[in-house]
Amino acid sequence: MLFQPRLPELQALANAAARLIAAAGGTPSEIAALTIDDLKLLGVKGVTVDNLPAVIAAIGKTTPDTAVDTVDEIQTVATTAQTAAANALAKISNLAGTDKADANTPSLDDYTAAGVTGGFVINGSSNTKLNVLSASNAGDVNGDGLQDLIIGSSDGTTGGSTYVVFGKTDNTAISIDDITNGTGGFKITGPVSAGVTLGVSVSSAGDLNGDGLSDLIVGTATSTNAARPAGAAYVIYGKAPAQTMWSWVPALWTRA
């Protein structure tokens, strides 16, 4: 009876330890189950809301029979992750307000150290260079309930190109070649005209035509129309997956 009042605390400690062991080298759901309170119960110090994702990610990369055998080893893993997260967050924060790349520009590793997880890579290729001029949230262009991306690129073609990348829930990389071929998105081809670059600015335009799909607005640096030499902006209506792609013709957009 003397120990009965302590039973809930002991049970909470046991549960925290079980979640930690499951998280070490475990599945994303097991890793995500860890909380600040769990780590505090186990004696881990310095964990905050800001660095918790980085600490949990670091624990998730360990194995149950090595780096998380003792509280001291857990603390070492957590402290290393906290330091890396603080440095990475400082670098990411310093990027705000600057328009030039330098040695302090954050890398993908910095975002990982800061606890940013998930997402996917969009790869260029030897056939299709991806030189990003602009990028923006595109809204839900294809009506599947996921937010999409729009990327403007001077991809080696004379007139530039714009790519719409459909949102997805997995982390697998995609290729611009796939997008060009209509898998996972579609390509909007610029005019084959010297001095015209499509995609210098891109953005969602909301639902302009009331069909329930997000529409796009894409800017060019100049225009092929002599009456508008200073540039032009073009609106592209959203489309369901079964519809055809878009391509450029002089002075207007048309279905291919």
Automatic annotation (TrEMBL):
GO terms for cellular component: integrin complex. GO terms for biological process: cell adhesion. The keyword Transport does not apply. It comes from the Bacteria. Keywords: Glycoprotein, Repeat, Signal. This is VCBS repeat-containing protein. It comes from Rhodoferax lacus.
